Amino acid sequence: MLQALLETLDRDARQRNDWGQVASYIPELASIDPAQFAISVCTVDGQEYHAGDVQVPFSIQSVSKVFTLALALGRLGGRLWERVGREPSGRAFNSIVQLEREQGIPRNPFINAGAIVTTDAVLGQRAPRETLGEILSFLREAADDSDVHINEYVARSEQRTGDRNYALAHFLRSCGNLHNDCDRALGTYFHHCAIEMTTVQLARAARFLCGGFRGHRMIGIERVRSINALMMTCGHYDGSGEFAYRVGFPGKSGVGGGIMAVVPNVASIAVWSPGLDQYGNSKQGTKALESLSKATGWSVFA
Amino acid sequence: MLQALLETLDRDARQRNDWGQVASYIPELASIDPAQFAISVCTVDGQEYHAGDVQVPFSIQSVSKVFTLALALGRLGGRLWERVGREPSGRAFNSIVQLEREQGIPRNPFINAGAIVTTDAVLGQRAPRETLGEILSFLREAADDSDVHINEYVARSEQRTGDRNYALAHFLRSCGNLHNDCDRALGTYFHHCAIEMTTVQLARAARFLCGGFRGHRMIGIERVRSINALMMTCGHYDGSGEFAYRVGFPGKSGVGGGIMAVVPNVASIAVWSPGLDQYGNSKQGTKALESLSKATGWSVFA
Amino acid sequence: MLQALLETLDRDARQRNDWGQVASYIPELASIDPAQFAISVCTVDGQEYHAGDVQVPFSIQSVSKVFTLALALGRLGGRLWERVGREPSGRAFNSIVQLEREQGIPRNPFINAGAIVTTDAVLGQRAPRETLGEILSFLREAADDSDVHINEYVARSEQRTGDRNYALAHFLRSCGNLHNDCDRALGTYFHHCAIEMTTVQLARAARFLCGGFRGHRMIGIERVRSINALMMTCGHYDGSGEFAYRVGFPGKSGVGGGIMAVVPNVASIAVWSPGLDQYGNSKQGTKALESLSKATGWSVFA
Amino acid sequence: MLQALLETLDRDARQRNDWGQVASYIPELASIDPAQFAISVCTVDGQEYHAGDVQVPFSIQSVSKVFTLALALGRLGGRLWERVGREPSGRAFNSIVQLEREQGIPRNPFINAGAIVTTDAVLGQRAPRETLGEILSFLREAADDSDVHINEYVARSEQRTGDRNYALAHFLRSCGNLHNDCDRALGTYFHHCAIEMTTVQLARAARFLCGGFRGHRMIGIERVRSINALMMTCGHYDGSGEFAYRVGFPGKSGVGGGIMAVVPNVASIAVWSPGLDQYGNSKQGTKALESLSKATGWSVFA
């Protein structure tokens, strides 16, 4: 029945044929065909359901911020919160306004500034290569799949066109909230954003945030709750309230069109469609999750 | 066991003896003894648990915004969202800055500006008296208790000192987003904020938002989820992310020191302690909910 | 020669036939024919030059703020600056954003919030009628003309539609920076903004700010310099820098299309054309002053 | 008499012994003794007057922005204003907030972001070395003195600690308003800010902005007026209105404690005292100019 539902969601997305705009700031993302859709669901009873372009790897972009956050909390624990807040931002994902108002403390770890600080915290005094190795290992273990890679072209393209992120990084550094130099922190940041996965891999990787999956207790339940809370209030930039309202369970979107979501104790989900809405979240991906929520009654809110 | 836990929470709050500041802008609130605490829990199996000053009525203030939202959604349905947003504000509860930036559309129904618009929507073209009657009836039915009243002194005191709210109302009106005149809309608003309840009454009143309580389906499940989502992302002003992170289930605070919360399908909760933290939320109330969440494992996030 | 120049300016304005938009927020201003132009110049040698619709009285609106400022400085001296700043605002004339950021201290006496505070200071504990009498007397003396009146229709129309100004006034009052109640302060404010004058009257009235006119030392030279400095940096809302750049001497505009300007020790000027540019300043009025400056070399900047 | 006055100003500054804080962000400026003062005046009749530490070269910092603006206007004419505005900013000199609000168009050429764009315009496609040579030549010719140099230590120190300026530059580039790369534009910017001059040299260099000096018509009178207008409305960051009010003629300050000022057709002035007020302008320098204005009656405002 869930399999049939996913197939319906896939067909509906293609029939609506209203894909939104793909991200245009780097050639690698701008050239992607928007008319693509994939959805994968892993339920806690060990079943998996897939529909659509589930074998196409896509750039997970900001979805990677969830994994670096998990690692940062592992390394620093609560001290991370001295450097980054836990509040929705009420601004665009790459706004620098808020950063000035709050003197270099990003509002949360999922806007760009906050993710740069989180990356800096994971880096510590290690080499970027070593840190990226740790991030990839974490992801591969979570996904039970060694075939997760960084797309070097995407990473370098981000670096070349990353002036807005460089502005954020230099601003953070001017406030004393970036310990590595800008090139080092951003190099690492751009690389983990350039990880590519399929929805199959991403839905599996999300199991550790769900609770209830055997053998996927990679982090403690307290931390799982913390990360899900942050995804719920801050996971979709300035569309986070809308997502909570329409979908009703935690998720994190990326500008590559992916969304990773979890229905606690029920299922982990990955959806992908590269066209974006005005907040930078996948248009058909969000729509599919809303329909899935309505059809299944999956919601944390009753 | 839950009874013992609530008694521990009550004792801990009193032992910490760190009560925060009571709201000082009107004499009726400023003169309240901060060293008070009460907590009430209704579980879906029909049990109730209480500890502390559970028979002391307090001013529910912004908690009332949840009930007017429920009524506004009943009257207007989705059209309400043409006049008010569903996003966390990233600002103080009474900020007018955001209102100017977004041209008179408040970010959500729980900041003051949004609650004034919501009140205006519930009013429609009716008399304030009739509208307040409807709000009280709704609350009394939800609480199964006819002894819920408006404190007229508090309402009038708010009106006398309400320049910031008058500023918001006139600004809304200048943007065409207030249909009643300012006195009429604010008169109604100040009165429903001045409703007084005990935690016993408030915990019972919250059952309709919980799901799972027999005989408390006052609104449809879709609407319950919507309201809980809004409480989760916007229920504690600029401390909403923090509350989601620390407590892990939806709630709405008031400047009188009350917090109404729901653990979907599990329990409805009311806590009260009049001293506030820097965001205007009950200091010991929040702390107690955090401890309750930790001790019981109640969380929507896993 | 100056006479010929003014006639050329008048003819040019009419030939360009590009009048801008008249203020639309009250019927009395919205219904004015934009295709009008008048200019009057008084030189320190006692000559006067006029061209265009110089006998048509117009609503001086914000130009009146210069006269209330002069009176406020006379009553309070430097203590006025504890309640209002002297910096350009970088915002629209009726913005409330800045007021929140600077906690109720308006940036300068020429934005609406600052002029409301200035009016409140001139009022003190007197009756509005008495205060308006003083303002009118001052203006009549400055203009050597008893035929200067308040248009009651305009004043009442402003009051009826003045929600934005009421929002500012209530906000100021919530910050403790409005001593009279909002109705009293705004009533006085709307009335002095509704004074009507011709360019002939207004150019004459401006002589006291020029220096060098015999018999027009109504205030000391120090205060003249102060007021001119404020007109230079803040006299045209968020177009003040532009006006200083293009015109090169101090002036104050009003939303009725009037501009009062002074070339220190040389001449006083009034120009009127009711169509406005995007900042709310007279479009053809500004253009005419720019041409006048170029043709005569009148500039304080060399 | 003017000589005696300057000596009094020098003595008064030293007697007040209230020097403000020297700029602390680079060691070269932080280590300067704040108890220094110098003032130089050149009058249009060819006389010069000096008092205080007039032979001590100091870092002119933002005062250099006036000269690069003159050169940029020479190269681009009015096209410069497509890339930078002419309005006071209402913000700190290095704020990035405004830049986001106005989508990469700095408010004026004297805040840091605007000066970086202006430097970029002067650079065009030339080498930084060549451009700096042109700036130095211009300054040496203006000052009639070949002994004007760049302090390389200061320039390099700025570059090392210039994260806030790098943030601005990258932000500008992300908006398409920086044509050279950040290192190239900022390298040039930091170097021209690191020019060192005495008040004698700087007062002489300012003659070209005064009008009335024989042989100092380096730029046309129209441009002189334009630059003076900008210095009047934007020359002292968020203290520009205050400076216009208290001093009454145009000037430009630098964080090294220097102020260059002109009384059109009367005199050019340089004052230096390294301690700063809260806006980043020389505390005793501003005070001395205010006293000078009062004592001489020099003011453009009457």
Description:
The first copy, chain A, has helices at 2-16, 27-30, 64-76, 97-101, 112-123, 128-143, 152-160, 163-174, 182-193, 199-205, 221-234, 240-246, 283-296, and strands spanning 38-43, 48-52, 58-59, 149-150, 195-197, 251-253, 258-263, 267-272. The first copy, chain A, has two domains: 2-60 and 196-294, 3-Layer(aba) Sandwich (Beta-lactamase), CATH 3.40.710.10; 62-194, 3-Layer(aba) Sandwich (Beta-lactamase). In chain A, α5 crosses α8. The first copy, chain A, is built from 13 helices and eight strands. Chain A starts with a helix and ends in a 6-residue tail after the last helix. Chain A is 46% helix and 11% strand. Chain A is of the alpha+beta class and 302 residues long. The model of chain A has no long low-confidence stretch (mean pLDDT 95). At the A-B interface, α11 and α12 of A face α11 and α12 of B. Chains A, B, C, D: It catalyses: L-glutamine + H2O = L-glutamate + NH4(+). Chains A, B, C, D: This is Glutaminase.
